[in-house]
Amino acid sequence: MSSIFELSPRCQDLQKRLVDFVENDCLPAEDIYESQVGKGDQRWKVVPPIIEELKAKARSLGLWNLFLHKGYPEGPGLTNLEYATLCEITGRCPRVAPEALNCSAPDTGNMEVFAKYGTAAQKQKYLVPLMNGEIRSAFAMTEIAVSSSDATNIETRIDRIGDHYIINGHKWWISGAGDPRCKVFLVMGKSDPGNESAYKQQSIVIVDAKTPGVEVVRPMTVFGYDDAPEGHCEVKFVNVKVPVSNIIAGEGRGFEVIQGRLGPGRIHHCMRAIGMAERTLDLMIARVTDPSRRTFGHILARHGTIAADVAKIRIEINAARLLVLSAADKIDKVSAKGALRDIAMAKVMVPNMLQKAIDLAIQAFGAAGVSQDTPLARFHAAARSLRIADGPDEVHIQQLARFELFRGDDIREKQEATKRRRAQILANNSKL
């Protein structure tokens, strides 16, 4: 994968190693991983052994915790831009490669929270084993009873009583909660519901997964996929008691924490999605140029609509990649907050591009495209849900529209200046 952005020699070397690892280890291990996922009552108790082998090899190759950018001493020292180029490569094998590198959601976002806001004690207890790949984690925000795309609606209560917080709430779509390795939740709720600012009512607290009152109710399915062993679960917190030392950053700073967490995370999702799109296009090209598959006397690629679809997918992948890399570069230069406009554009464009590419590839495959014999059906489920996860399209579009419409006064002022200048030129016999 080439880039118009300047990448360090180290990043280029990591790209080469990662391509080799994904193509020669992760992709061949995909079916093995799926066959090792638990069946029946072992569904949420078994971790495929092959993933631990891949993790060990990735670590030995220096392909470990690449996501934590150079602003953190715990990370490998890459920029968000550099990691974005690596993240795309892992997207070619989304079920296996990200976890093999200890770079899979929601752990990446949670590790960044601990690295940025955690106390020394919190880092030692949770960040260290997470970065070692010894445990996994979950982020509990979305709720079953309210529209959680507006996070001010969150109803979970975090009430301080003496030296403890008592947590009561009902969450769902909590990714990673079904994993037997999940040892910690970061839970968002209201600690100060009476605060005049709707954005200072929320806090985030650490909850050990085995704390009394934590109940994983059921795994949810995404178009029939349960994504075991991690899953996306409905979770109840009933009178869950944790020490006040489990607060992240301080009371009332929940929004600050999630915005810092979600910005880079959205870029990670988008770059993995581009990797998925590249593999989708590869699968489609292999199918439509297969000489053994002919319709009406020609291979599929000789039919005009198929060839046009391939060309359009290539155009949209390349355009989407540049948009996401530009957003990552801006995060490096002006922070995630300063790059909100660029992140919003990427978060809308990329999942829609991926969904369209997969749909066209499925059409080219025919019935095989919706079967378990290709990754396209699972890719489609992921692409469609990504248009909802981390904020639905509509929220990002609305945010982007605000950025654009805010320019209205400046645009009108420039237009008036142009009119005045035109009048000056005409008054001067059409001479400058």
From TrEMBL:
Instruction: Please give the biological process terms from Gene Ontology that the record holds.
Output: fatty acid beta-oxidation using acyl-CoA dehydrogenase
The UniProt keywords, alphabetically, are: FAD, Flavoprotein, Oxidoreductase
GO cellular component terms attached to this protein's record? cytoplasm
The GO terms this record gives for MF are: acyl-CoA dehydrogenase activity; flavin adenine dinucleotide binding
Q: Which residues form the Acyl-CoA dehydrogenase/oxidase N-terminal domain?
A: 12-134
Q: Where is the Acyl-CoA oxidase/dehydrogenase middle domain?
A: 138-240
On whether Oxidoreductase is a keyword of this UniProt record, the answer is yes
Its assembly, as annotated, is: Homodimer.
Q: What is this protein called?
A: Acyl-CoA dehydrogenase NM domain-like protein
Q: Which organism is it from?
A: Linnemannia hyalina
